Amino acid sequence: MSRIGRRPASADADSPLPGNEAILRDQLWIREVVERLLQSGDETDVELIKRKLAELMSEHRDLDDVIARVTEAGPFDQLQIQRLKKRKLMLKDEIARLESRLLPDIIA
Fold this sequence. Notes:
This protein is mostly helical. The chain has helices at residues 20-39, 43-72, 78-102. The protein has one domain.
């Protein structure tokens, strides 16, 4: 198993749409992974961060597509849409955090 750790069972791609508890569990898992990656400064860790960043960006795009399809399909569950949007926002925050860690600090 890699140093990244295993994703919680509730975060599997085949699971139903996540509830609030699953979203919080996923969010904690992502933060934990990011913190572990950022604590060491190895070249390989930069590659791991880039890989994780690509994974999060892909999931963010997928959620965008899912939200669009669900809202176009006629009557939809507002709670389901809220959960999807909350997950998407959490991903956006983590993406921004990872991107800022990849960029070197610039002293003005």
